[in-house]
Amino acid sequence: MSDLKTIVKEKLAGGADAFLCLKNEEGTVLPALITDADSPDLEFVDVGESRYPLGRILIDLQREYPDKRFAVLVRGCDERALIELSKLEQIDLDRLVMVGVACSTEEAEACGCPRPYPGDIALGEKVEAAPGREVIDEVESLGDAERLGWWKEQFSRCIKCYGCRNICPMCFCKDCALENPHLVEPGVIPPDFPSFHIIRALDMTGRCIDCGLCEEACPADIPLRSLYRKMQDIMEDKLEYRAGGSVEEKNPLSFLGTEHDIEKLEQE
Amino acid sequence: MAEESKKNDEEDIRILAFLCNWCSYAGADLAGVSRFQYPPNVLDVRVMCTGTISPYFVIKAFQEGMDGVLIAGCHIGDCHYLKGNYMTAKRFQVLREALKFLGLEEGRLRLEWVSAAEGEKYADVIRSFTEEVKALGPSPLRGKKAAKAEVGA
Ligand code: SF4
Ligand code: SF4
Ligand code: FES
Questions:
Q1: Mutation target among A147, A231, A256 for the B interface, most CBs of B within 10 A
Q2: Residue B50 CA: which ligand 3 atom is closest?
Q3: What is the DSSP letter of A167?
Q4: What is the pTM of this model?
Q5: What are chain B's domains?
Q6: What is the pLDDT along chain B (153 residues), one digit of tens a residue?
Q7: Nearest bound ligand to CA B84?
Q8: Exposed, middle or buried: residue A237 (CB in 10 Å: 0-12, 13-18, 19+)?
Q9: Radius of gyration in angstroms for the set of CA atoms belonging to chain B, rounded to a whole number
Q10: Cα separation of A170 and A106, whole Å?
Q11: Which residue of A has its CA nearest to B89?
C-alpha cells in the first residue's frame, strides 16, 4: 500500500494544483497545503490520528482560487461534510479530488462514527463502528419535566466559548444566529436556556454529519453530539433525509416540494 | 393560598398566535365579528404567510415566557404564495420533535389550517388550545423575562 507522501506527489503530477492535508512537525499537527513536489512540508505530511475540519479551509480556497483543482485527504466524516457542503453551494465537488482514509478500529470505536470510512479508500482498511445511543436512550426514558431538568443541567455548564460552532465543518454562515442579540442575550453565561442550544440543534438538523468534533471540543462535556444525532433521526423519520449521504438527494428543508409530500407528512 | 396562586396562574396563561394575513387572521376577525366566544389569553402576530415563520420565532416566544404557541395558516393548496405553508408543515414536524426531546410538553405547540371563512373553527381552535395549555399550566421555560408581556395590551 502506498503512503500519503507518494499519493500527494501522484495527485500533484496528475492534475491537482494543490493537496490539502495535515502535517506533523515534531508533534505539532497543522493543516498543510502542498503546492509542489519539492515542498519541504512534504516530509511532514501525516494521516495521524488527529482530525480537523479541512472542508472549512477548502471553502475559502475554492472561493479564492476558482480555476484551481484541489485534492484533499478525507476520512468518512470529511467526505460526508464535503458532500453536504456541496449541496449548500459551499464546495464544488467537480474541482475536487478526494483521497480517502479509513479510520482504524481503535479510532472508529473511540469516535463512535456511523461510517468510519469514505466511498473510495486509498489508505487504511475499512472497519465498521456503531454510534452510541446511551445518551438518547437515557433522555427518552425520562418524562417531560425530568428531561427538561436534565438538559438544563447539561446546558448550565456552557461557558459560551463557541467552540462547538467554530470547529463544526458544517458551520459557515457569516452571520450566526448564536450571536444575534435578539435570540441570545450578549454577555450572559450560561447562555439563555434553551435558545442557544436549541437554535444550534435546529440549524444542524439535516446538516450535521455526525463527526463529533463539537463534543470533542466542548470544555464543558455537554453531550452535543447526541443532541444533534437525535435531530438527524427526527429528520430521517419525518422527512426521509440524512445529511452527508448521496450527492443528488436534496434536503427537504431546502425546497418546497409537492402537495403529495405534505399530505403524506400530515397523515402520520 | 396555594390554590389561589394556581388559579391565578391559569388565568395568566399566555398564548402567542402567529396568524397568516390571508386566512387565519381574517378567520380570527370573522370569529370576532360573528361574536363567537373565545378566551382572551391570546396575543396575535400577523404574518404575511406561515412560511415566513422561522423556528427561531417560536423558540423566542417560549424564551420570553409564552405558555403556548399556535401557528395558523391557509389550508394546504390554498396558500396565497402557493407553497409557503409546505415549508411550515415540514419545519413544524422538526420543531415539535425537537421540543419534545428537550422535554417541553407537546401540547404547547400547535399548527392549524384555518381559512378566512372558518370563523367558528378559529374560535374552536383557540378554545381547545387554551384549555390544553391551561391544563398544562405555566410553561416551565418561563424565566426571568417571563410575566412581563401583557396579553391584550
Ligand atoms: S457532530 Fe458537531 S461538529 Fe460534527 S457536523 Fe455535527 S454539529 Fe458539526
Ligand atoms: S463548546 Fe460547549 S461550552 Fe463552548 S459554547 Fe459550545 S456547548 Fe457551550
Ligand atoms: S399565505 Fe397563508 S399560509 Fe401562506
A1: A256
A2: 3
A3: H
A4: 0.92
A5: 14-147 (3.40.50)
A6: 445 555 555 568 999 999 999 998 888 888 888 888 778 899 999 999 999 999 999 999 999 999 999 999 999 999 999 999 999 999 999 999 999 999 999 999 999 999 999 999 999 999 999 999 999 999 999 865 544 444 443
A7: 3
A8: exposed
A9: 15
A10: 25
A11: A262
